[in-house]
Model the fold of this input.
Amino acid sequence: MGIRLVATVTAASLLALTTAGVAAADTGTDTAADRKVVQEALDQLTKSGAALGVQARVTDGRQRFTARSGKAELDSEKPVPLDGRFRVGSITKTFVSTVLLQLAGEGKVELDAPVDRYLPGLIDKQITVRQVLQHTSGLYNYTNALPLSPDEFEKIRYKHWSPQELLAISTSKPLDFAPGTKWSYSNTNYIVAGLLVEKLTGKPYEKSVEQRILKPLRLNDTEVPGDNPNIRGPHAHGYWTVNGKPSDITRLNPSVAWSAGEMISTTKDLDTFIVALTSGKLLKPAQQQELVKTTTVSPDYGLGLSVQTLPCGTKVLGHGGGIPGYSSDLLTTPDNKNRLEMSATSAPVGGNPGDAYKKLLDEVFC
Done:
């Protein structure tokens, strides 16, 4: 579930490489998750053409290790940095939802109140805060109307987008369905969520994310970049094909995703965040229950957090993300015993990640 600016992670199988490798363990003992199998899955992702490079952090019990495959840049043999920063796409939504749930716990917003109570005239008066966070609002997904083919996106990759512009794309169209009657993933919901945070706190939403989550958890490699097109520090590059030639899409203005998917992080920081969130360190008990509460209309999604059962029967919580150049995953079992954080970078020619991704999930969680 990403910003949906790209449909999948893509890579050129002819560029699959010999730079893959597993890092030294963070602890001195092995884990139940077989590193060899994890490595095989990551290598399959790059060699099949599903990714140019990939890095993963695996936790099983008290043991953990990091692994990588592929390379950091198209015309280089430099390996993907194990501590590399990357665009997390829609994992941003989980941070934003956490802030709104904190505000609910402080009595500053009611989840079942209409958004119109706080932001009069912004969207349909029937839509509640909960429906926005759970993707049951019916709001048209604004990214469906953006010029998102590589050739088209090149023309707008550095454009500044205001949240009002993004929202206007959605509200110019009718609701997809009556609020609360269906589930449909819409990035517009979290543009509204970001605006709600700003209204309730009187400050930019990124300041609330920083003050309430990043600083307390010391997520020093996580940021809300705004209009900055760069990724600071070590990072792998993402690519796609423009006018028939490979093009580096790493640099872009992420305001096109705003509070629906603009953040940058690392696998280590995301691991710290998901453990804090799912273990109850960021929310009060009542809001902690709301975070993972699903409904018949939304059976697999709580409030900014996916709640799913894998085919093997293991329940996992988390979120995925995608934005040009990057695809990411953040997953944990409810007890935090088994966790996976992963970033894959795209390449000019696509491949199918299905089998390799299933193999990875099976090894880590099943």
